[in-house]
Sequence to fold (81 residues):
Amino acid sequence: MSNVHVEAARIPDRDRLLAELRQAGLDAHALEEIEIEVRCHGTPEEREDVLVQVEGMIMSIGAPFVPIKHEGVIYIRPPIA
Fold:
């Protein structure tokens, strides 16, 4: 088993995304101020599925942020113009 890390821009964004991930049935836990850890088996398909779910959740809550995957961490950042 391995973990997928998600880092939000702000605490309210983290809290809202954490609730959405848990509602989706993912084993998600808050870490420090703006991080989320999602426990998974670590297959490439499962890790990609977490990214897809995060992207969908961001779009569904209307947050003006973009998920960016880099070196095993998903960062939630404002869009780059």
User: Anything to note?
Assistant: The first strand starts at residue 2 and ends at 7.
